[in-house]
Amino acid sequence: xxxxxxxxxxxxxxxxxxxxxxxxxxxxxxxxxxxxxxxxxxxxxxxxxxxxxxxxxxxxxxxxxxxxxxxxxxxxxxxxxxxxxxxxxxxxxxxxxxxxxxxxxxxxxxxxxx
Amino acid sequence: xxxxxxxxxxxxxxxxxxxxxxxxxxxxxxxxxxxxxxxxxxxxxxxxxxxxxxxxxxxxxxxxxxxxxxxxxxxxxxxxxxxxxxxxxxxxxxxxxxxxxxxxxxxxxxxxxx
Lengths: 114, 114
Fold this sequence. Notes:
- The complex is a heterodimer.
- By secondary structure, chain A is an all-beta fold.
- Chain A is built from no helices and eleven strands.
- In chain A, the strands form two sheets. In chain A, strands 2, 4, 5, 6, 9, 10 and 11 form a seven-stranded mixed beta sheet that branches.
- In chain A, a hairpin with a 3-residue loop joins strand 4 and strand 5 (42-50).
- By secondary structure, chain B is mainly beta.
- In chain B, the strands form two sheets. In chain B, strands 2, 4, 5, 9, 10 and 11 form a six-stranded mixed beta sheet that branches. Chain B has a five-stranded antiparallel beta sheet with strand order 1-3-8-7-6, with no helix packed on it.
- Classes of the chains: A mainly beta, B mainly beta.
- The A-B interface holds A 4, 31, 33, 35, 42-43, 45, 48, 55-56, 58, 88, 90, 92, 98-108, 110 and B 3, 30-31, 33, 35, 40-45, 48, 88, 90, 92, 97-107.
């Protein structure tokens, strides 16, 4: 079975631009969640989707948004980029509807904002 | 904060030695999980222990959980150079709006010298 696939792996943007990151979960997994990892804040939860519905959202500004498609693939968007948005963005999928089990992570998308 | 806190922040040992990492958390949990991350890569799930379990083994890994003290430990026996990585504990809350969301600690950086 293919793992979680995230694209792009690396990208560089400038302040004020927007970015869209994509995540393809493991086949059959319907839950997709996103995390931001920075040296200063560590791993922070962004949001979780299940069957195209956002079930939970972390404490991030409205510039951070996401969605999930009917095939469970997910995208997250960050608008009006700031320097502090530079981070490794990790997507994880899970087969568990209750979100009580392990997460399977992708390799991440490393965003650098200049 | 509901995040777990790992201790120590960094651990350096020789191959063949055992490595012990500790994690403390603040709220009641559904389960506690340990993940490994090689530099700049995605997280790999190691082991999950539920709140009603006290100890769990998986290969060279042994995890304990003490819910009265809100703490867990991860023991890696007979360490290998390939075990060099960051290790994170993550807790999943057992109720409310935080259900399904993982709270990560800052991690322990383990270095195993050949």
